[in-house]
Amino acid sequence: MKTTLVILAAGMGSRYGGLKQIDPVGPNGEVILNYSVYDAVKAGFDKAVFIIKKEIEKDFYEIVAPRVEKLIDVDYAFQELDMLPAGFSFPERTKPWGTAHALICAADKISTPFAVINADDYYGKQAYKILHTNLLTCNNSFIVGYKLKNTLSENGTVTRGICAAENGILTKINETKGLDKNSPYSPDTLVSMNMWGLKADFPRKLKEDFPAFLSNMKNNLTDEYLLPSVIDSYIQKEGMKVNVFDTDDKWFGVTYREDKNAVSTEIKKLTDNGEYEGI
To answer: Considering the domain boundaries, does residue 102 fall inside one?
Structure first.
């Protein structure tokens, strides 16, 4: 069975202060998603789909594409503010529509079971092995969850989806802002890093339900169609079954610009250990 890795790379990165998806962190100019694709290929993925914005297309092709296209079959989808159902228009909006909208924009590029990841997060090798194995064997959609203590930044608070599960099935996911080491949650609390395993037809369902979201927004300028929130609504209202698989991998990423030096240091350690030869 073929599998696809979908990389969300169209976010604005406002807290970071720039286009962090294409900011080099590796010793030879690599960006985080170069390592993500490398780990995904090693785990067995067959295709990668990058969701980007037109405004970064040129830089993306120059900085990222040459490395990833030599490793895996690559396709591209574009997420833009005006990609809306007929009858909807929000000309004053500048904020992207969110991660679920991104999957809608890539729907015609996805024809296999697929995984979703963020472009600016380093997930770890074990996580990709868990992800790929369960795309092939799990009958339900699923999430790869992380321990909260393994997902925090030293330079500010983060937003994570706090997960609740019973017998390995996700029962609730609550997007929670302001998390740090002093938050009132156990360090081992399971959280979402937006690493999902989904069925090929899932973007079509998101597309069908998007008009209802647009019609019921409270704020036309800032409300987002977010994948964790949409999946939680499917769990609560439709009984969607989502398995939970946990990993002990340690996340690192560039939520804030100050995170970059620490990420580069970690990447160098892994490179010096021979884990990313030929990237």
So the answer is: yes
